[in-house]
């Protein structure tokens, strides 16, 4: 009985795959229209036409491979496609809609072509569920893992890029901070800051928060801790890059930054740091 069922399922799968392959152009056009009409998601609509067509072909190939190919071959296709859609910025709900739209278009097309009729409707409905539900679940699982890995790598890259102490003049160094500062990043900033002060023999350190979108009580607490640590190793800490909205937030929250100097931008901070080390920038004679 099981052998008969498997043979029947394989026959239905072959019919579905054959219909998709023979009508791929029409199916792709309808699928693209359906995806573009998802108004809450513009990630597909803004794709260049060439990339949209290529992505559509790859998605159709993924759907067909689930019907005909071995599990291992399908998994390879799925991993490649999941990595691509993560890079394109597709949300997981958008991916599931893509699967639903594709299967609906194929089902309706096979009905119009007379392949699906009253005699075999139940078999095809059962097989469409057996086709789309596993591919949806496995796609979501692979997408989630790919997304988590991508975010983790981006977080590591951001930490490495935004927590380095850079010497700009003798005895003067700058640490540009970019992105949100959480407890984990604050620890990394503190470690790099103290190591950098000793390594570069810095007397003045400028913490540049131009690239920090929000300064709340927690961020200010981390910055104050960093400044205190710098003073303990014999250097002076300055906070630069304070935008008007950041200044307003600091005042509103009642955050006390009186312990160290502040400036609105890096240029003024460097000028003040030079003054602390008894130097200044002067214009040279062109002759």
Question: Mind explaining what this structure looks like?
Answer:
Helices cover about 65% and strands about 10% of the residues. It contains ten helices and five strands, in the order H-H-H-H-H-H-E-E-H-E-H-E-H-E-H. It has helices at about 1-20, 25-35, 50-70, 70-90, 90-110, 120-160, 185-200, 215-230, 245-255, 265-275, and strands spanning about 165-170, 170-180, 205-210, 235-240, 260-265. A five-stranded mixed sheet has the order 1-2-3-4-5, sandwiched between helices. The model is unreliable at about 1-5 (pLDDT under 50).
Find the count of extended strands (DSSP E, 2+ residues): 5
In which order are the strands of the major sheet placed? 1-2-3-4-5
By DSSP (H or I, 4+ residues per run), the number of helices equals 10
**Fraction of residues in β-strands:** 5-15%
Q: What is the H-and-E element order?
A: HHHHHHEEHEHEHEH
Average pLDDT, to the nearest integer?
Answer: 81
Helix content: 55-70%
Poorly predicted sequence stretches spanning 5 or more consecutive residues: 1-7
Q: What is the global morphology?
A: elongated
Category by helix and strand content: alpha/beta
- Main pleated-sheet profile: 5 strands, mixed
Radius of gyration, CA atoms, in whole angstroms? 30 Å
Termini separation comes to 99 Å
Which helices and strands occur, and which strands form pairs?
Elements: H1 2-22, H2 24-36, H3 49-68, H4 71-88, H5 92-112, H6 121-161, E1 166-169, E2 172-178, H7 183-200, E3 204-211, H8 217-232, E4 236-240, H9 244-253, E5 261-263, H10 266-276
Parallel strand pairs: 2-3, 3-4, 4-5
Antiparallel strand pairs: 1-2
Helix pairs in contact: 1-3, 2-3, 2-5, 3-4, 4-6, 5-6, 7-8
